Amino acid sequence: MSTRSIESKLAILSDAAKYDASCASSGSTKRDSRDGKGLGSNTGSGICHAYAPDGRCISLLKILMTNFCIYDCAYCVNRVSSNVERARFTVDEVVKLTIEFYRRNYIEGLFLSSGIIRSPDVTMSEMVQIARKLRHEENFRGYIHLKTIPDAAPELIAEAGLLADRLSINVELPTDAAVTQYAPEKDPAQIRKAMGHVRLRKENSKDRSHTGKRPPKFAPAGQSTQVIVGADASNDATILGQSTRLYSSYGLKRVYYSAFSPIPDSSKNLPLIRPPLQREHRLYQADWLLRFYGFELDEITSVTQDGNLQLDYDPKLAWALAHRGLFPLDVNRASRELLLRVPGFGVRTVNRILSTRRHRNLRYEDLTRMGVSMKKARAFVTATGWSPAALTDSADLRAKFAPPPEQLSLL
Amino acid sequence: MTIRMTMPMIGTAQAWRDAARGLINANVAPCDVSWGDETTPAGLWDSLPPPRTDKVLTVPKEFISIARSVVWHSDPSRFALLYRVLWRLRDTPHLLSDRADPELAQLRRMEKNVHRCQHKMKAFVRFRELGSPEDPRRSFAAWFEPSHFTVEPTAPFFARRFGDMDWRIITPSVTASFVDGKIAFSAGQSKPPLPEDASEQLWTTYFRNIFNPARVKVKAMQSEMPKKYWKNMPEAAAIPDLIASAPARVRAMNEAAPTLPPLRVEKVQQQLARLPESVWSGDADALRAEISACTRCPLHCHATQAVHGEGPMDAPLMIVGEQPGDTEDLAGRPFVGPAGKLFDEICAKADVDRSRAYVTNAVKHFKFIPRGKRRIHQQPSTTEIEQCKWWLDAERTAVQPRAIIALGASAAQSLTGNGEGIGKRRGKVHLLDDGTPVVLSFHPSYLLRLRDPVARQEASELLRLDLTRAHQLAQNISV
Fold first, then answer.
1. What's the pLDDT tens digit per position in B202-259?
2. Residues B321 and B179 both lie in one domain
3. How confident is the model at residue A5 (pLDDT cuts 50, 70, 90)?
């Protein structure tokens, strides 16, 4: 094992890390190295340095420290009972890779995760050591995301939060029962406890001391988590219900949904049916509606009987089609709350409509210039010189939005 | 006759600003100006520009920021369009808030193009090392072909990011260099031969392996990373092969039969069993451990943790609240949130040492509904209080307090079986079956909800009296 080249280690440990969906590098504190004493900057908005053919962006060097693991989580490629090739990076190797990639403008920073070796504390302290070396020895001012091990000691999580921009702890599955079934060594209550700990630490780091001094920032880009979709039988209402609780309880920046993906050497305990990637996409759309568009959870999930989102229509369109009595809305008069419910209108376009209609009446062409997707919105709005007439209530409106029929393969 | 304005390739933003200020102060209409860059041939009737003036011209801040981006667009008509809008702004200062004006819409589109081009430049420039990694100040260079003239406005970003190394970004139009902390611009050049860089091999290895063959979305990739950039990105060479081999790799994954776990699994699991107890699990007290593991009602699914009582196990006074709140749920300790802080103040006034009392709640898990970024407290139902009474009784048996104070309706419900009319019943002493006196009072969070400062002061005074009473009962002082 010790004779493995750094290239083969990188191959194994990046392959093992690809099932973590997050690659955000945004939302942290602004800093730079214009003083010439360090390397790296953070502008607050993230940069995707490349895209892989799976459509996912590559912003961070996303690797595992090691893919040896003592846990046996059925959905995970690195579980102890899997026969994948194993490797382990040393602290210096991770630091060198990060710095050399960063200098060539390949990445925004490091996303470090790890299998559990020996014990949660040992693993976490080695991860913290990597972050410490990057920050203090290499003066690295880029982005660091540390995947936190929920069972690791609170002091280790505390130090991790001071070094990293973002901490994340995966809740893995939508219900406690599913976690107990598929990840027997993980404790859902402990995962929540650790997330609560991070939130409290973050809030305490905002209080000034009696001299008015601010304590060092704790995980300035917040915390996030990931849920695997389709590995257990939970429906979308359950998944989104969990997300709303997580957002409200732990101040999460993001909940990532990851469609259960077939893995090499998969466990026989898992369904081999792969959920449609579209389901993951619809969950993200619903997540956005809940957070930025003023939708309530049951409004979105009550459109269908089984509590799953429709795959053929986005959740906002599905809601609008089920509530046609509210439409068409007059873009020149309707309130912000209602405009946000029009399919094809985003938060930004609604802001534009509100600022422009103070000066004059809006016409159909004006809306297209503001970036509205009128193909979707036209049936639901009226504007000066535009009325959808019978279109809003027409029986085949739903069919008009249906995805084009697909020819089945002959073979 | 038209006035000829020639904009330089380097320093375009400032040059346009000076020129436009001169023209508009000289009252030159947009139709009388012909704009061009160094490559535009001069017209037959061109005349010299008006002298520069320093007269102040006020325009909205937003226009300056749009102009500062649009001047770097590759469209030759950009200078004229900017000047036309500037001209119109004199008479209609609110023009910018009209998101539907066609000329402004075009300007905004061009601004967006430039921003996108800048963003892609920040993302897709790939440096190669020129010197040796051991040099005190390392040196890198990159060849890049942007769609617009974005090198100059983007160079400061690279200077802030790579402050401790020298770098050059060479493009066909302009070359930016950063040597010893200073940015300089010079004319563009054709593609130079840059030395091979060993890190590119590693980077391509990473790119190949981070790709998940089970989810191929080529369109999503190309919309964000258009093919025009591929030729200068080392990892892009791997893309065709990754796409071509993906279906076969997925098929192989699906067809592979489940394998037997490796032999070391058993050894690892023994090792796992020997792991020391996690520090999170806290003290080994049996009652507390049982409360933490409680699943008697569904509240445990959503709360972070059960919050058990705290205080000396021989405390004379027991303080019972309703349920943990947002802060208590995260911290795992009772009465540490806003209501807890208020309660501490009242304790101090009543001369009651909280650390000498046993502080707990009628219900051990937080009941809430999520609302955006906050959790809204929900009153526990009678069933939930009944289920949790089991634990409160167990705590009472263990502590054997000489007196109890019940704060709020839920605590009264749990201890006396009746939670109604706490406003009228407060101050009364209820005797439990075993003879322990229970003083009924308000919950401190009720005081927090009172808007009227006078009413709040009064209620706070009553709570202090009740607390004193309970304290005296606990000390066996006759009242």
1. 999 999 999 998 888 999 999 999 999 999 999 999 999 999 999 998 888 878 767 7
2. no
3. very high
Query: Whole-angstrom Cα distance, residue A346 to residue A367?
Result: 12
Same domain? B235 vs B359: no
B196 C-beta neighbours (distance < 10 Å), count: 8
Best probe of the A interface among B111, B116, B144, B164, by most A CBs < 10 A, is B164
Confidence (pTM): 0.91
Residue B272 lies in a domain: no
Residue B457: both structure tokens together: 């002061």
| Total tally of structural domains belonging to chain B | 4
Q: How many Cβ atoms from other residues are within 10 Å of residue B146's Cβ?
A: 24
The residues in A 71-130 lying below 8 A from B, measured between CB atoms, are: 71-72, 80-83, 97, 100-101, 103-106, 118-120
> Cβ of B304 and A195 within 8 Å?
yes
**List of domains in chain A:** 6-221 (3.20.20), 315-401 (no CATH)
- Asked if A354 reaches chain B (Cβ–Cβ under 8 Å), the answer is no
pLDDT digits (tens, 9 = 90+) for A111-125: 999 999 888 999 999
The total of other beta-carbon atoms located within 10 Å of residue B134's CB is: 6
Cβ contact A62–B250 (<8 Å): no
Q: Which of B133, B160, B187 is the last residue of a domain?
A: B187
CATH number at residue B402: 3.40.470.10
How many other C-beta atoms lie within 10 A of the C-beta of residue A2? 5
Residue A369 contacts B, CB cutoff 8 Å: yes
| Mean pLDDT computed over A220-227 | 94
- Alpha-carbon distance of A13 to B380, in angstroms, equals 48
Q: Which long-range contacts (CB under 8 A, 24 or more apart) does B157-160 make?
A: B157/A41, B157/A43, B157/B118, B157/B122, B158/B122, B158/B125, B159/A34, B159/B183, B160/A32, B160/A33, B160/A34, B160/A41
- Specify if B261 maps to a domain: no
Burial of A238 (0-12, 13-18, 19+ CB in 10 A): middle
Same domain, B162 and B234: no
Nearest to residue B394, comparing CAs of B273, B467, B277, B289? B289
> Tell me, what's the pLDDT at B57?
79
Residues B288 and B416 in one domain: yes
In this complex, the residue of B212, B271, B305 whose CB is nearest that of residue A189 is B305
In Å, how far is A345's CA from the nearest CA of chain B? 15
From the list B123, B218, B253, the residue facing A264 with the nearest CB is B253
Q: How confident is the model at residue B407 (pLDDT cuts 50, 70, 90)?
A: very high
Q: Which domain holds residue B12?
A: 2-120
- A contact test, residue of B208, B209, B218, B365 with most A CBs within 10 A: B209
Rounded mean pLDDT, B125-136: 92
- Could you report the predicted ipTM of this complex, rounded to two decimals? 0.91
Measured between CB atoms, does A44 come within 8 Å of chain B? no
Mean pLDDT of A205-232: 88
What's the pLDDT score for residue B44? Answer: 62
For residue B125, which residues of chain A lie inside 8 Å, CB to CB?
105
Cβ contact, residue pair A54, B211, below 8 Å: yes
Cβ contacts of A263 on chain B, cutoff 8 Å: 253
User: What one-character-per-residue DSSP string does B429-459 give?
Assistant: EEE-TT--EEEEE--HHHHHH---HHHHHHH
Which pLDDT score, from 0 to 100, does residue B63 have? 94
Same domain, B377 and B451: yes
Helix residue ranges, H only, B28-70: 61-70
Question: Is B276 within a domain?
Answer: no
Compare CB distances from B254 to A11, A176, A262 and report the shortest one's residue: A262
Distance CA A164, CA A146 (A): 6
d(CA B361, CA B284): 20
Burial of B119 (0-12, 13-18, 19+ CB in 10 A): middle
Residues of chain A with C-beta less than 8 angstroms from the C-beta of B198: none
